[in-house]
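User: Okay, second chain of the day. Same drill as before: sequence in, structure tokens out.
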Amino acid sequence: MLNFRWIQYAKYATLYRAIGYIISITLEQNNFPMREWHIQHMKQTVVRFVKGLSENATRWELRLNKKYGTISKVIKRIDYDVKHGVTSEQVFSFLQLMRTDSVYLEVMACAGSTERLNELQAYYKESIPQLSYNWNNVVTR
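Assistant: Same drill. Structure tokens below.
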């Protein structure tokens, strides 16, 4: 009796397995569903850091800048965006774009903006393709 029940449910198990397989083939996995949002967040973070504080900043803005406006915190936020789909090339190209594009002239006109942009560019240098290590070419003694 027990074996009969197992056979009865086995056909449904294979049916569900087959349906699951068909669905997995037809659906495409989206590894980074919020990539565009993270690209925009990276751009906003860089612009906010490079622009710095205004001359008439409130105490609250000064406090927030002291807590979140340091180079290490900005790099952490950008690295978080890189972890979620932004490429290092996109970060580097945006930093280059900030120097040259006329849209960011107002941001670059602020005092100390070029120094802050240089700090970021020192960390995010142009990505050099890494050499892959081939274990077949290893010489052992």
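The mean pLDDT is 80.

User: Thanks, on to the next one.
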